[in-house]
Structures are given as C-alpha cells and as structure tokens.
C-alpha cells in the first residue's frame, strides 16, 4: 500500500467507496488510526448509507459527479474543522 510507504504526513484521504480490490470503507478503516481525516466520494452511495461513519467532523462525503471547485470547497471545510479540534 502506497500510504504505508509514504514518509511524510498525509492530511486527508480522499477515497471512492466502490473500487476493484478493496472498497473505500475498508481502506479508510485500515488507515484511520494514522490518517483520521477522510473524504468519501461515490456515485452509488449516499450519506444515509454511511450512517455513523459521518458523525465525526473528520469524515465527509461528496456525491459524484462534482466539480473541482466543489471538491476544493469540501476538502477545505473538512481540514478547517480538523484544525479547530473537530
């Protein structure tokens, strides 16, 4: 896994929920302790399906399709919440 070999800090994990080898939820669970800020994206899932995962201010969701400006705004919002102790 590339994240395990990365020597620096990773401030935000952006992952699709539906992927071929491992789904985004499993990936986030693996990395959650080390990289607790996560933005899930999906065209096939909605916020209700993620349930309690979204209770943390460190975890967000963005429905596909989205624009680059919407992605930037959402990541900015999540990272600001984390800086504020969220």
Helix and strand topology:
Layout: H1 2-5, E1 13-16, H2 24-31, E2 38-42, H3 47-50, E3 59-63, H4 68-83
Parallel strand pairs: 1-2, 2-3
Characterise this structure.
- With 86 residues, the protein is α/β, with parallel strands linked by helices.
- It has a single domain, classed as Rossmann fold.
- It is built from four helices and three strands; from the N terminus they run H-E-H-E-H-E-H.
- A three-stranded parallel beta sheet has the order 1-2-3, sandwiched between helices.
- Helix 3 links the parallel strand 2 and strand 3.
Question: What descriptors fit this protein?
Answer:
single chain, 86 residues, alpha/beta, Rossmann fold, three-stranded parallel β-sheet, 4 helices, 3 strands, 37% helix, globular
Task: Give the gist of this structure.
The chain contains 4 helices and 3 strands. The protein has 86 residues and is an alpha/beta fold. It has one domain: Response regulator (Rossmann fold, 3-Layer(aba) Sandwich).
